[in-house]
């Protein structure tokens, strides 16, 4: 976070902060400098933090990863390439308005032809490069995993079931297995494929429902394959609130959302949880323009400078290309992410040097 705000003194408060500690140790720090601003990662701050800032006219924003993040999971401490800042609430909280929801509800996309052209080009680049939010999954041939296609294919997207996006984005608390069984019941003649969440597959998050319980009804992907590959040959995606649902929409795939993610309620998804605040009809491109271009901020973790989404896609594409295959991974004590960043930095420096030498 220091790199994101080089002109500010960044002070981190403890994640577990009791209200009495905030009252004694932190209120005066915030109020001592009129230039203070407060950022809260999701809902990690004390409950009265937002109310306190509003009362004293201190700028306050919630912070969360953006939708194009890194080449590894956040649980593996990979630095984020994008962050979303929201003064109202977390973008995944369907119970209250957010800055992102306001953008989607009010922005004049039809008049902003430059923005929409950027959105179209960025979508093309993202899909062509096979980029997603984390980009950590293995690239594979899905035909070898799915088999020959003889019927409609339904992909069920698993999530970390304790995830805040489910807690605040779904009135009914579905499990991943619930989602699989709903897809099975609604598509009795289709091939059902279940993709557990990468953090569950890699052991950084616990599964609350057992994938073995649905193996008789679905093909369970035990290997963490990339989302772009997993979506190949898929006709319909089922999700609770996952961003993978929106990435499916960008590929023209039908999406059923049991919860209410930020991209539902705008006429592009099969919605099972209505939202009275959302009635405007939008396209997937317009939602992308708001959520990926207007809403977040992007940052180059190598050059340590603010960038636009186009540059973020370029960097991730290069890092993805440099990512070693499983048989090329370094010894366990080495850090493959650090090695990738070093190699990318060396490549960028070499490119700059060549440009300086050109007449």
UniProtKB/TrEMBL annotation:
Pfam families, per database record: Capsule_synth (PF05159)
CDD domains in the cross-refs: beta_Kdo_transferase_KpsC_2
Keywords linked to the UniProt accession: Transferase
Superkingdom in the source lineage: Bacteria
Molecular function via GO: transferase activity
GO biological process, one term: polysaccharide biosynthetic process
Protein name according to UniProt: Beta-3-deoxy-D-manno-oct-2-ulosonic acid transferase
């Amino acid at each position: 976070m220091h790199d994101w705000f080089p002109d500010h003194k960044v002070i981190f408060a403890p994640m577990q902060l009791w209200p009495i500690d905030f009252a004694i140790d932190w209120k005066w720090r915030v109020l001592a400098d009129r230039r203070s601003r407060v950022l809260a990662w999701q809902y990690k701050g004390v409950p009265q933090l937002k109310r306190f800032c509003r009362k004293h006219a201190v700028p306050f924003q919630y912070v969360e990863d953006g939708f194009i993040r890194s080449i590894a999971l956040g649980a593996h401490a990979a630095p984020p390439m994008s962050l979303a800042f929201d003064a109202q609430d977390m973008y995944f909280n369907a119970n209250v308005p957010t800055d992102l929801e306001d953008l989607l509800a009010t922005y004049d996309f039809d008049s902003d032809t430059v923005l929409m052209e950027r959105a179209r080009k960025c979508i093309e680049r993202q899909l062509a490069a096979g980029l997603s939010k984390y980009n950590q999954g293995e690239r594979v041939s899905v035909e070898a995993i799915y088999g020959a296609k003889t019927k409609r294919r339904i992909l069920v997207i698993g999530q970390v079931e304790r995830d805040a996006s489910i807690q605040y984005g779904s009135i009914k608390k579905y499990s991943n297995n619930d989602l699989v069984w709903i897809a099975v019941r609604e598509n009795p003649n289709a091939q059902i494929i279940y993709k557990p969440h990468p953090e569950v597959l890699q052991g950084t998050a616990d599964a609350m429902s057992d994938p073995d319980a649905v193996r008789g009804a679905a093909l369970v992907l035990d290997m963490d394959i990339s989302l772009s590959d997993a979506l190949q040959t898929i006709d319909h995606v089922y999700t609770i609130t996952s961003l993978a649902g929106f990435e499916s929409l960008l590929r023209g795939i039908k999406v059923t959302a049991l919860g209410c993610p930020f991209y539902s309620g705008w006429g592009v998804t099969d919605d099972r949880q209505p939202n009275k605040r959302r009635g405007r009809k939008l396209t997937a491109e317009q939602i992308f323009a708001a959520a990926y271009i207007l809403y977040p901020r992007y940052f180059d973790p190598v050059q340590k400078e603010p960038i636009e989404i186009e540059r973020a896609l370029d960097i991730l594409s290069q890092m993805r290309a440099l990512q070693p295959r499983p048989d090329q991974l370094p010894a366990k004590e080495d850090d493959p992410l650090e090695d990738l960043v070093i190699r990318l930095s060396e490549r960028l420096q070499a490119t700059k040097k060549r440009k300086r030498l050109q007449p």
